[in-house]
Amino acid sequence: MGAKxxxxxxxxxxxxxxxxxxxxxxxxxDSFPKEERFGLVSQISRCSVSIPSNIAExxxxxxxxxxxxxxxxLGSSFELxxxxxxxxxxxxxxxxxxxxxxxKIAEFQKMTMGFQNKL
Length: 119
Hints:
By secondary structure, the protein is mainly α. It is built from four helices and no strands.
């Protein structure tokens, strides 16, 4: 059996973009109503943190398992997008804030799928 190839997640563009998304999300949720603390805020923060975290965790695995962790990260990005749409519909964020984050999430998804195809 060959040596296990490890990926340096800290040098990964998709991980860096995931960290940017988390930072942007945390800036947004600071202004959410306090009654959403254990609801939407909790969901949004957990799934946003899941995006770069799964990339980091998967980077220590074989390419096959790394791809699985990238799938989880992608799933979290789609979940985050849905929750941000809900937040916008509840008037917790503006349409402009939503669009800016949706663009970043779409870029993350495209880059991640492209990277996954190269594994």
